[in-house]
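PROTEIN ENTRY
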Amino acid sequence: MLARTADALFWTARYMERADYLARLLETAMRAASLPASYGGSSTEWESAVASAGAAEEFYARYGDATEETVRDWLAFSPDYPSSIRNCLTTARTNARAVRTALTPEMWDAVSDTAVELSRFPARGMDSEELIRFLEWVKGVVRAFDGAARRTMLRNDVYWFVRLGGAIERADNTARILDVKYHILLPEHERVGGSLDYFQWSTILREVSANTAYRWVYRQSVKPWLVADLLILNRQMPRSLASCYEVIARQTDLLAEAYGRRGPSQKQARSILARLTGARIEDIFQSGLHEFITGFLDDNVQLGGSIADQYLT
């Protein structure tokens, strides 16, 4: 496969996954912002959305304050933020069009009409109900793309690069959600285990569609270390770091077998998976969840660079 083809496939999946993630962030921020102040709500939900998106520096340089209006504008529609939902879907479509013959018709159909549909949603002036419809549409587009890939593609290098891009992006997103909640979101005057803390950990579960999974696995009320265990170490949870790295390690191994050569990406993927497999959530919390996640994010970025060097350039 040509490197530019692999690159387009890899980044199509990454941008689709990123659009879904940002839609979930905004939906969660809106839900948190709707809490009455007497419940313990604060203004941190919009700051946390910006932080979770990894866009704080650019955002504050432009807007100064994180309000509902500015965060919605920046994360959903801004043409100046490369990873806004609008730009993610537009870039994904551009990449998909470049490799259209490598995609199945069902996959192309999932992304081909996004430009037309996006134009039907006004960038400004949406009320909450309209924004929710937009975010649900975004998540539906991504589900259709991902489902089409799983149900219609041959299991060859085209599929492996799509899966690889999606898993790398999903792992990054899950790690950022956890880090922002633990390190940023809870105000200093709120106690850990209080009503706001409980609500925010529950919100994380909703954000990654894991409420039902949590109840099935733990059969307990929401506890921070159990939420972290589910989203970091539990391989049954599709968005967990361990599950993402099972996918990543498998896809990189399949590429190595198909191309007859192993390289840094295979070694790094297996090393990260081994660390996740051998970890215990008690040890992670004791040594520092923020430090663990920061290290993981650095490793994930480094692996993305290795994949690019080995296959995409």
